[in-house]
Amino acid sequence: MYLFGGYSVAIKPQQTIDRNIAMELVRVTEAAALASSRHMGLGDKELVDQAAVDAMRSTLNAIQMHGVIVIGEGEKDEAPMLFNGENIGTGSPPEVDIAVDPIDGTTLLSKGLPGAIAVIALSSRDTMNCPQETFYMNKIAVGPEAKDAIDITATVKENLKSVASAKDCSVKDLVVMVLDRPRHETLLRDIREAGARVRLISDGDVAAGIHAAMPTSDVDILMGIGGTPEGVLTAAAIRCIGGAIQAQAWPNNVKEREAAETAGVLNKVYATNDLVSGEDVFFSATGVSTGDLLRGVNFSLKEAETHSLVMRSRSGTVRWIDSMHDLTRLNKIT
Questions:
Q1: Over the stretch 91-100, which tens digit does the pLDDT of each residue have?
Q2: Dihedral angle at the C-alpha atoms of 93, 103, 256, 210, nearest 10 degrees?
């Protein structure tokens, strides 16, 4: 209880979420990866995405939870399944927020390129915040060593010097991951002039953020403009890893700029906990096509092999999971 305006107000405490829900989430991303990978390289983005959505939703609905999709496939009138606000699960406790990207890298998968993953994050109800004013955000993400060294309002050169100092290395030793987009021309010039090295990626915003935050990664920092929902998913993963992400709205048109100005968030700096604030945060990803972060699905005559990553913020545990699926049995129960 606490006093507000002279009245006693009850605060509903966050429920502790059973740690075993982590394995349920692995089953969700495995299902999405298995279903979508059958359509790899066919050139149809919608086909791979729909296969992942169908499999993910079916598996989610069997989990004991009262989930609400806070980041999904879009608004209800745009997405028949996994739409924003959709209730998911059996309807029993715990009450949770769920963010999904059935395929992070649909273009990659449709073209048969490496790096596509299936992604889900979960936390206590009302602890995920996905800014609605702009579709894109400018982001900077690092691992635990440099979590206190970044400032998105500072220059690229200043951030690189600060991260290098935190990691006890030279700027020229740093590798910066950036989405290969025309909008990053100035950013790339600034990184190169500062002396750091660059690794360009064509797609896969979430995987890139995780890659940059992993302590054992050969990437030191993620910089640049990417999707706002992907930023929240990255924040969920980073809550588990222990790194940091900062983000600011990046309006893509006049309407978005006006919306951000009206909401007072145009210049707001979102820190990791501003995007995902819960104490119980879970994250799972399964490789669909083999990339730097995860191996893709490998099919044989009667079996399929998957490679997944699952993390939990409360314990800080990061697990890499190799699974072998007997397709003759799976086909009978799905």
A1: 999 999 999 9
A2: 80
